Amino acid sequence: xxxxxxxxxxxxxxxxHDRGALIIAxxxxxxxxxxxxxxxxxxxxxxAQAAIQEDVDVVGLSSLSGGHKTLFPKVVEALxxxxxxxxPVIGGGVIxxxxxxxxxxxxxxxxxxxxxxxxxxxxxxxxxVSGDSNE
Amino acid sequence: MxxxxxxxxxxxxxxxxxxxxxxxxxKEQFVNKSDIExxxxxxxxxxxxxxxxxxxxxxxxxYPYTRGIQPSMYxxxxxxxxQYAGFGSAEExxxxxxxxxxxxxxxxxxxxxxxxxxxxxxxxxxxxxxxxKVGVAIDSLEDMExxxxxxPLDQVSTSMTINAPASVLLCMxxxxxxxxxxxxxxxxxxxxxxxxxxxxxRGTYIYPPKPSMRxxxxxxxxxxxxxxxxxxxxISGYHIREAGSTAVQEVAFTLxxxxxxxxxxxxxxxxxxxxxxxxxxxxxxxxxxxxxAAKFRAARRIWAKMMKEKYKAQNEKSWxxxxxxxxxxxxxxxxxxxxxxxxxxxxxxxAVLGGTQSLHTNSRDEALALPTxxxxxxxxxxxxxxxxxxGVADTVDxxxxxxxxxxxxxxxxxxxxxxxxxxxxxxxxxQAVEEGYxxxxxxxxxYETQKKIESQEEVIVGMNEFKIEEEVHEDLLRVDxxxxxxxxxxxxxxxxxxxxxxxxxxLNKLKEAAQKSHENLMPYILDCVKSYATVGEIxxxxxxxxxxxxxx
Amino acid sequence: xxxxxxxxxxxDQRALARAITMIENDHPNKLSLLSDLNQRxxxxxxxxxxxxxxxxxSSLVDHFITLLREQNKKVAVIAVDPTSPFSGGALLxxxxxxxxHFTDENVFIRSMATxxxxxxxxxxxxxxxxxxxxxxFDYIIVETVGVGQSELDIMxxxxxxxxxxxxxxxxxxxxxxAGIMEIADLFILNKxxxxxxxxxxxxxxxxxxxxxxxxxxxxIVETTSxxxxxxxxxxxxxxxxxxxxxxxxxxxxxxxxxxxxxxxxELMQEALxxxxxxxxxxxxxxxEKIDQVEDPYQLxxxxxxxxxxxxxxxxNGKRN
Lengths: 135, 552, 320
Hints:
Chain B is of the alpha/beta class. Chain B has 22 helices and 10 strands.
């Protein structure tokens, strides 16, 4: 059976800069993954619902507006509310080092800061997926 | 052959004289440290002159403006040093503005938070986590009054980075000025008001393209009659470049958008010379020094030709591409952030040598967070060093005549025109945006750049080469998390205290006017604003009528 | 496995999503799951919507969902986009335009990539529709790009196939050439506020006559997806009209039967192909021959007659 990795790339909050999100989406696609892009201005509830319906292996969030401290944990929470806390959440964008520990504590699996090569993100997602059996 | 050249030269001398009468040169005599005198302008000797020089390069202040839009440029006055600022509450931002004015800044530039930019009040559920984060939160006229408190609006020009709700914020500005006793005719400044690049690159759109274009032409028309000194649009390549475009794409898509606004205004019944002199542009400056300087020169030449030949504008002011420049945010690295000071200096220099009218220099820590006061000061000092110490402003367009720069200017023009022709074939910029053409081109360029950086084909100092282990950066500006709650309370207070029936009446009138496509909405919006209707309430009325754009 | 089917029956979206993943990944237990699901199907109306990129499919589907939700209908959407032939990955962005329905518990949106291997796309889509039907949606909408063979194939599972055309796009000739005229049950002229819509409609009428539809003459509906969308009530009526035709007329019922017949063949074909592929790849003598084949006709003929002899022998053996 052929197993494809599926990833949801979402932009929570109102920030409209999607360059980073689109670059990562394309890089993941070029590494053979199926990437579902949900567009701008998504609420945590919208993201969680999309993640479930699309049965993704990982949710990737991008934020450049400084709203990450509120919004990323809310996505984790929204997944939990829908009994989908097993879907790992990762994030990227303009995120100061000092916020990273907080976000990890709140259940975000990993934060990628500006300048991270896309291959690092690809490898991380692959490692997330190989650890889980998917029935 | 030299006849035309001599005519141009004589004309230029007259222009300089006239300018100097109004604004005397900054110094009585320009000399360098070796005591060599600096001429206002250097140009070919008579025996080196050819037709191409007169045709393509010419003299500053003359068509096609390759060398600049004024005859003696910075010999008289430096560019406007305009630092974009705004965060948190109106009160805090007001303090920062006053500080910057005291530090010698010559114009204000307001950054709004995302809820304001997308037309949501601070207490809207969509605003959660975003209030006051990337700029100041403005909900009602009350916030605008606080923001501009103690700032004389007849003396300071204000640039507002606002697009989809530009009409609302402009009306608030006018209302505050009137309260200060400054009539509409006297206020000066710029609203960004460039919706097309929002669909292409920046993402803070509200309505679909057609009604958005109507709002923009409404503003053109209203201001032509009522607020004649206000720049009604700042057609922006900045964000297109930030989204990952090349320099050529930046200019091409920006000018194509500019043409779309001109077309829309003409279609709505305006004469080109009625609004074209109030069009302003906004470009980016990245690291490739000569490419950037040539880009600005090419952009000016293309626009001048376009306005004169295609749109048959008669007023010379309509031909002149005036632009603001901001250094490239996306070129800054989170690693070794102090290196960014050097990048900013190079970028700023290219903008000055490219003939910018105003300039924002980024702060070193912008890849990490909003700038601290110290970083913002260094950024401003960078401009001041270029202006006062480097001497580059002592003669006009010193790069002219360089084989490299002139040829690069020509090449960029050619490539830009190829894009513009392509977009025209598609039916113009609005059509191209709706089809996602520019978005795709930019994204492709961005992705190629990313791959080059990852393969180290492109070196970014401190990021993919010359790396060091770094400490966590401590002294970053944090926006107080309490602020959101305060702002929410404040807007609710305003709602409690205002005359609600009056608000409802004004909003209802706006709704009815929106349904009639020939009606100019500006006076209605001004009435709403004066009754303390909020940005969110006004935008919701228009959302109901115009619909919302959902992205590509 | 039964448990998953039961969870879907109980309207568990996570289970439905997981089942579709199993279908896409060709999980070993796929057929038994599908058989379970098939027994639980509720009789949704399957709608296929196709049209070229830029025709406004996603916006149209978005508005149509809004209308169906106003009437309290449950809706599933399966949006199919191509897989990159180079990397095997895909960028699926059709949800973007439907985001206002994301938190509506009665709207289920699933993006599928064509994956492109061995004609499996159409199969997986059909199976995904069945899974949605077991959940109990009233409408299941499949949205595909373009007019390729695999899209044509997907349309064969739809009860009603709608083709979107827009003025001045030249789509209509593509559609004609690709043989879509014959399978379309309904034409949607989207962006009908643009000039050129009259001309398009006349062209279309001519082409419908040339194509010679048997049974149900396709209706033509005009829609616009602007701030205040128009034509969607008419569109809904047209879908209902076609649905009644399927339920009540002889020809309509025949169409459904034909689809089911076709599906048996298709399932068998897929399974047999896989068996054959496995046998060849795992039998060293055969593998060696196929890897070094020079005359494909000869090798295929040799193997075919061996296989035919074998199956004849088997049936002979049974008779004895």
